[in-house]
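Lecture notes, structural biology module. Today: joint structure prediction for complexes of two components.
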Amino acid sequence: MTALIHARGLIKRFGDFTAVDGIDVDVQPGEAFGFLGPNGAGKSSTMRMIGCVSPPTGGVLRILGMDPRRDGPAIRARLGVCPQLDNLDVELTVRENLTTYARFFGIPRPTARRRAAELLEFVQLTERAGSKVEPLSGGMKRRLTIARALVNEPDLVLLDEPTTGLDPQARHLVWERLFRLKQQGVTLVLTTHYMDEAEQLCDRLVVMDGGRIVAEGSPRALIERHSTREVVELRFAAEDQGVFAGKLAGIADRTEVLPDRVLLYVSDGDDALAEVHRRALNPASALVRRSSLEDVFLHLTGRTLVD
Amino acid sequence: MLTLVWPKLVSFEGSAGRSARVTERNISTLKSAYWVVMAGGLLEPVLYLFSIGVGVGALIGDLELPGGRLVGYTEFVAPAMLAASAMSGALAETTFNFFGKMKFMRLYDGILATPIQPFEIALGELVWAMIRGSVYSAAFLVIMVVMDLTTPLRALAAFPATVLVGFAFGALGMTVSTLIRSWQDFDLIGAGQFALFLFSGTFVPAESYPPALRWLVEVSPLYRSVDLIRGISLGWVGWAQVVDVLFLLALLGVGLSVSGHRMGKLLCK
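The predicted structure, tokenised, for the full assembly:
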């Protein structure tokens, strides 16, 4: 099976600034693939290159086996793109946004109307079909943008930060729809700086930082490789959490001191917490949880994902 | 200039069809409010025709043009107002509206994620601007025939000329839109458009300016449009009109090619 996306040493520069600094990526059909990283990691620049709206500065890039520099229109005909910022057509209704967009792909009008009706059903916007875009909530707009990205029945769907800026309920609704797509076998490529999003949706992901890929694998494999099974989060009443680092020595495999809390990376959280109490350190709050991609990122880059 | 544009039209399979989709999108945004805006655009040249053409014309009487030909002042001004309305229709669509769609509605960002390319968007928008300009022109030609300022046959002949004028100014407007940075620059466009309107042989024959200025007037695209349409409407067609057509075609070719290129630069970073 040929990869839908194949990149080797892919580079994107804007003047002196290098946004993407030589990345290697392969995405197979049917996969849900993620780019995880903080703002400015180069995720969106990568997505725009994959979407054939931004020419690569260097390296090899093949999308659906074709060259974006030469075959842009042919590639884009088979892509569905959900951009980071909604760019719905505010002069059209919800339904017209889908039918008009379908026309841009050369889809005949009757097919466009039928597909628009199905997709509005899929993203639960049928009741708002005749409404303008502006009065819709953020979550509804995002769902409409996702529906629009599906109007040409794409082989590959690109989602740039699909739930950024949405409230938790709206995010879950979007996740649920994306999960349905994934189950239908649609290849999804998404960027996110939410570790829970990456964990829920991605079969495989790369962690990006400063335009480079710093780790690659399934969410579970990344956690196993770069973190411990459990984490103890301690918050101390003191101004400087750092003063406790010495007193916590020897409890954890690794100790991270953040401005507002201390993280202990351990195999057994309850044991470690008991030891903290035995030393009479009295944290203001304590939480034992499983390791997440956030911890992987912190370990790999020394920084948190969401600043 | 067509050699710049024409290969693009034929080399992309279905390129004309794809730009037609952009025009189609604009047609589907037509709602009742839009017609009010469009009626406003037609009103301006009609008001000028009545205030200056008919009003001031009564004081001036007949005008003697070079070659000794006499023409009533209203008949002299009317074709110029027609050219000006074709210009303003096309410019309104390709400057203010086009810029808004590109920078603020992010409309083209969405369209460029489909097989449609920057050049095709430019072409589709231009055709749309031309349609709008043509609606103005057709309405104005009807007024001219009703007022006996031209014959129905000449009006029919003048119509394609107004379409060319709309195309040329649309391409010019779109080029300007891809070069300007902010809404503030629209004041400059407005001022430029008004200067063209006043000094393009619209109200006064170009021959009445001193030679240095006359040269400046004669390279103005609106002067070329006025000269073309006036020639047809008064039935005086000659080599000058051939020059006018070539001038406007060149403007169209350069404008379309530059704006398509600039859109690619701006939107496909």
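Point to remember: The beta strands of chain B are 62-65, 69-72.
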